[in-house]
Model the fold of this input.
Amino acid sequence: MTTTSLCWFRRDLRLDDHAAIHAALRHSERVICVFVFDRDILEGLPRQDRRVDFIWHALVELKQALRQCGSDLVVSHGRAVEDIPALAREYGAGTVWASRDCEPAARQRDEEVAAELARHSIRLKTVKDRVIFEQDEVLNGSGKPYTVFTPYRNAWLKKLTPFYLQAYPSTHYLDRLAKLDETPLPTLAELGFADSGLKRLGIHPGMSGAATLFSDFAQRIDRYQQWRDFPAAKGVSYLSAHLRFGTISIRQLAQFAWQQGNAGALKWLDELIWREFYQQLLWHYPRVAEESFKPEYRQLAFPNDEDLFAAWCRGRTGYPLIDAAMRQLEYSGYMHNRLRMVTASFLVKDLLIDWRWGERHFAEKLIDYDLAANNGGWQWAASTGCDAQPWFRIFNPVAQSQKFDPEGKFIRRYLPELAGLDNKAIHAPWQAKMLPPGFRLGHDYPAPIVDHSVQREKALVLFGQRHKA
Done:
């Protein structure tokens, strides 16, 4: 009797170096690839959600690749807990293979799917794919998870060998894919969504888009350490959304960085390790998704002024670097990593607003939104996380602007109303001795909504009280 399996694609939208499809093809004589547009996830998202658009276009490419193998990607629109068991039964599968996910909601979903499958004597098997090391693979000497990055990184690097960077030869077994007639892919409109303008933004989803970005970054990775903090420079990889949706393999990226071994490549490898640090943290401490990791900061009495929050969201704080970053996020669904730290610090330490408000806003806007990384980054900036920016160190938004956008190139791109200011005035227009003729601060561009020096002292008192408690 022919053994049949499903390969359930989720955050791994590629064929090459794919752990779940490799396992399914090795253990089965016939494999059907499936994807579910899960209503439990999609419900409530805006009609022009860029992530849904990104996924849809990635699926178009994945489906085409499978069609070239004589198979197809079977795509449904429903609830995964219902559709995966139904598809498994329809195709006579004895096993469903999928890549593991550390997010609490995903773990709960998988438990429910596994229970429903078990009612029909079908197994759900999950494999590691999204990270080099997961769960309990990197622990301290006491067998506990690391809660400080540097020791984790050192242990991660000590454990790393070429074995962990090997690609899964998933494309070697594609002859075992089930021969299928072409099945329809629901249109964005049928899913309840619309084109979000990715092409206009120069964003190319799918395996080919990831490969193009990686090829470009590989030529300049040696300059990564030098340029990564400057938002006006082409210094970073821009691969975060592709890592988020698995259109490129983490093993391919980590192996390249490790083998290159120069300062830029090793600094980028550090960033990939930060990603894994936050993944394992969320796995071991899922409560961080809802509350501060450090108990002493769970009851911080933030004033949470809604008008200040609205100004921050709209990019109308009067601090040019903050506003340019927030407008970049609104326009493109992306924000440079240095600016994520600075805007987060400003919201929490200058505007005295709960970090979870900002985290939710980023979750709504970022194409590359990843719960572990977003939560970890926000808790770092808010000084509430396990390995955090010390509570008494507070980013000065003007100093950050002067240091990382010295000529105001990034600010001018997203705040054209400030284009006429000189390279000194553009960082703090309210301090300028002279502004362009006709330019009125408070009319053409907002005056600062808070005084950084005053707010800094308030933040020190707020955090200091809890720290002493």
